[in-house]
Amino acid sequence: MIVCIAEKPSVAKEIADVIGATSRHDGYYEGNGYQVTWTFGHLCTLKEPHDYTPNWKNWNLGSLPMIPPRFGIKLIDDKGIEKQFKIIEWLFKQADGIVNCGDAGQEGELIQRWVMQKAGVTCPVRRLWISSLTEEAIREGFTHLQDQQDFKSLYEAGLCRAIGDWLLGMNATRLYTIKYRTQNSRQVLSIGRVQTPTLALVVSRQDEIDNFKPEQYWELKTTYRDAVFNSTKGRFSSIEEGRKVLESIQSQPFAISSVTRKEGKDYAPRLFDLTSLQVECNRKYSMSADDTLKTIQSLYEKKVTTYPRVDTQFLSDDIYPKCPKILEGLKAYTQFTEPLKGRKLPKTKRVFDNGKVTDHHAIIPTGVWSDTLLPNEKRVFDLVARRFIAVFYPDCQYAQTTVLGESAKVEFKTTGREILVPGWRVLFDKDKADDAKTDDEERVRPGFTVGESGPHKPELQEKWTQAPKPYTEATLLRAMETAGKLVADEELRDAMKENGIGRPSTRAAIIETLYKRGYMRKEKKNIFPTPTGRSLIGIIHEELLKSAELTGIWEKRLREIERGKYSPAQFIDELKQMVTGIISQVMADNSSRLLQ
Fold first, then answer.
1. Can you tell me the mean pLDDT for 421-425?
2. Of the residues 29, 307, 471, 519, which is catalytic?
């Protein structure tokens, strides 16, 4: 008998239906030579400090650092989990072989391997690796099962992540709680490898806002033939300087000195990875990162979209032949898919690039249609579907017009953009095309002729510099993705993903954890640190703990472990040294800083 183990009961049911295991039993399905069982996400976890030695049960500085000679796992203390594990263990003991059907990612690999270790599996294990739960994908996956050994480095990366989080979280949390909380306080000062640098980003932004001193400046503009021109001199730091220039042109005519028209193209927005989808849902629908993750996970389980926990916006070449069928399945979008029918779909490196795809490709529709989606599911699916269709549409073609004028030798400039061929933009309302320009930039300028002149209305406008904006979940996710560096350019952002903090699948949980622990709060869409959160970052002088950039380097190491290019033992040794060093520094601190 072959035992298949999935990550959720619902996924197990989908797999069981496809492979013919249709007889339902307590904790598993059976039939056609298969038994299909499931976990509930994590059934096992790393042992707690007191599981290694009773001395580590009580919190005291003398027991630090806590570094077990060998890390172990245990079942999570829950009656439902214990019952299901006994069923799994019984099935495994009778199995001729096992198919690991866990989610096809680092976390999914870790979940199932820990269960197999705890159950003492000795029979051969193969891996089901699929990007969607459609019947076609499951059947194809079972005809191409892979040896579990091929995924060893993926498991090692997940294990190193878990051990790293344990080492830093357990030790630093106890260290800072004992050392810096007030005598009568019972509050735990929670420190985490990703959580603390993320909180530090929010606190740093709030410090910038609080310490910001607005500065006054003036801008010179003039209106000629209903078009607003801006002075090319830029800002004036004093009103006297601005007035002097204003007075010199007030009674002088305005003349057009140059008109240039340049044609260009806008490419369709890229396909979604998880972070960009979370950013877009937060920006458009005010959905939290966690809500977006739950929604896209639900769409995956309903078979209408592909695997969601991905960090690439590209497709592999083998998806290209399947695209016409996927487009055909998008029943509510026939007005957009019909023009693509019967034509060879374009294939560009902006969409199809094997070099940018590792375990999974970008999030796309599967071509399976559902009429039973919930409101949020419809919204998220609409974003995914439109992006997918758009990449096969022609580029948007536009003409950019730049007009220069002058009055009394003071130069002014205005620009306007005219859409010549909308191309992919037909799929989006104006507020939906995230690459669309602002109304002002899109305004088509009236026809100007070089040498024409006439009266104009100049004015000096008083302005003030603006403080940085608080983070929203959208901008915080972007900051986590780029280790705190503000990057607008897509190509550069791609290059920096290697050093992002956290994984796409865990960033939402990190943000939620910071809310739950009272370190951050949300007001409408804006995120603010709480006094406790600010105080916690304030007492952490050890830059290693709160630097997004340094945490990004550790993330890069974990990705290299996943690819077999970095030693797991070396990574753990480096973390042990770091934890030991931080403990020494904090122990030597004789200041009176305490959490406020």
1. 95
2. 307
